Amino acid sequence: MPGPGYRTVVPELPDGTVWERLVALYREVAATVAAVEGTPVVLSGDCTVALGTLAGVQRRGIDPAVVWFDAHGDVHTLESSTSGYIGGMSLRLALGVHADLMAEPLGLRPVAAERTVLVDARDLDPGEREYLSTAPVRHCGVDTITLPDGPVLLHIDVDVITAEEVPGLLHPVTGGPTRDAVLDAVRRVIATGRVVALDIACPWNPGEYPERADLLATLTGLLDTGAVAAAHDR
């Protein structure tokens, strides 16, 4: 888990709705990201923390495109979700859905769908498939990534790797790309020199697994110019 150089973000959260508590946390993440010298690396246990990372990068005067590695689409809305799980709305919130609940109070400028790349997302619900069938979001595999122009916020949910290689995931999905294939794709994106923040979500159950420790060490070592660890608490 976070080592030297990482700062853990654990703000006092207000009483209130889950949305108000999330906004309070992500404001603190955004402030920390904005203050990092160099390229921030954010670790968390939930994809929605990427909203704080995005807002923090925007506070630095940068308007990045988003490249989102995930086994899931994360493009649900409150209306399309059958579970109400906010993590399944993470990317769609970054694109501006339910702006009154997240983007506006957080001070986040929604990213245009045509400047968004969704990588893998092999496990999609019907509502997500319907949205992606018409939205200008680029949906591709790890071997066919085409980046939008300009700076990039790179988000990696570790469950994009096939579940057989990452033990203890909260939402495991088999049949996906291997660890090596994902890391090769991530390295190609970083090699463009356009990544302005690396956001890594680790939605897994507690436990000590050498495979997970090695994966995190490899991912966090890809960008070594600044770091912040984000604690997720609703």
From TrEMBL:
Keyword vocabulary terms for this entry: Hydrolase, Manganese, Metal-binding
Any GO molecular function: manganese ion binding
Gene3D superfamilies according to UniProt: Ureohydrolase domain
Top-level taxonomic group: Bacteria
The EC number(s) this enzyme carries: 3.5.3.1
Pfam hit, one: Arginase
Family matches, as SUPFAM superfamilies: Arginase/deacetylase
InterPro entries, alphabetized: Ureohydrolase (IPR006035), Ureohydrolase_dom_sf (IPR023696)
A cellular component annotation (GO) from this entry: cytosol
Family: Belongs to the arginase family.
Protein name (record): Arginase
Source organism of the structure: Nocardia otitidiscaviarum
Lineage, opening ranks: Bacteria, Bacillati, Actinomycetota, Actinomycetes, Mycobacteriales
